[in-house]
Specification:
Strand 5, helix 6 and strand 6 form a beta-alpha-beta unit. The protein has one domain: NAD(P)-binding Rossmann-like Domain (Rossmann fold). The protein contains nine helices and seven strands; from the N terminus they run βαβαβαβααβαβαααβ. It has a seven-stranded parallel sheet with strand order 3-2-1-4-5-6-7, sandwiched between helices. The protein is globular and about 50 Å long. Helix 1 packs parallel to helix 2 and helix 1 packs across helix 9. By secondary structure, it is α/β, with parallel strands linked by helices.
């Protein structure tokens, strides 16, 4: 198994890509701390893991609040004896995030509070646990929109994901010498509850975006988790500071 004896903390593990990652990581031998804003959804993920014979712990955590993250990290490390992987998957994309001209300050702050501050806090409290184990892997989730502009702006989300890329680069340089590798995945549009609620109910909007994807389909959580599995495993021992794009070719499509 590719993650045997690894201890992984996954944020946003109650649904979508986070739940998919938790299930795959556990199937590959990892012990999983499934963190989510909603404890009940985290518990549902743990039940699914235990049903397949894995080991996991459900933790309620608001990644935008330091005390909540501190407790989540401490609880995870105490339960399993440390941490080897931090998977910063939790993120939000509110419907009232538009152009800088009409996005409210509260919306901007909320997006950055989860998407950027959340990564900072998990790393602040989680990286010391990785150091105790002699190294590990930090996996951050950004987005393809951090790499290209969009005529239908979502400026808070876009800027927040650009910040995640920049932060990941800094982490890679700081902690690489201590055997901690930090990498970022930039997914294209993925069929998760976040995308479904916002886009897939609108046929015209769905078709508009599908026309931009050379592969002809939206991504699935498993498409991203497969890449994350590589980053969590020892197979990626010399992959550090990388920006890995999994978007079906959307960022390569001029027309």
């Amino acid at each position: 198994m590719r993650l045997e004896d690894k201890i992984c903390l996954i944020t946003g593990a109650g649904s979508g890509m986070g739940r998919a990652a938790a299930l795959v990581f556990a199937r590959e031998g990892a012990k999983v701390a499934a963190c989510d804003l909603k404890l009940e959804t985290a518990r549902e993920t743990v039940k699914l893991i235990e049903k397949q014979g894995g080991k996991a712990l459900a933790i309620e955590a608001d990644v935008s609040r330091e005390q909540s993250v501190r407790l989540a990290v401490a609880q995870s490390a105490k339960a399993f004896g440390g941490l080897d992987v931090l998977y910063n998957n939790a993120g939000i994309f509110p419907s009232d995030d538009h152009s800088v001209l009409d996005t409210e300050e509260a919306v901007w702050d909320k997006v950055f509070g989860v998407n950027v501050k959340g990564v900072y806090l998990v790393c602040k409290h989680g990286i010391p646990e990785l150091l105790k184990r002699g190294g590990g892997s930090v996996i951050n989730i950004a987005s393809f929109v951090a790499l290209v502009g969009c005529s239908v702006p979502q400026d808070a989300y876009t800027a927040s994901k650009g910040a995640v890329i920049a932060l990941t680069k800094s982490l890679a340089v700081q902690f690489g010498p201590q055997s901690i590798r930090s990498n970022v995945i930039c997914p294209g549009p993925i069929e998760t509850p976040l995308l479904t609620e916002w886009l897939l109910k609108e046929p015209k909007e769905k078709a508009k975006r599908l026309n931009r994807i050379p592969m002809g389909r939206f991504g699935k959580p498993e498409d991203i988790v497969s890449m994350a599995l590589f980053l969590a495993s020892d197979e990626s021992s010399w992959t550090n500071g990388a920006v890995l794009v999994a978007d079906g070719g959307i960022t390569s499509n001029y027309f």
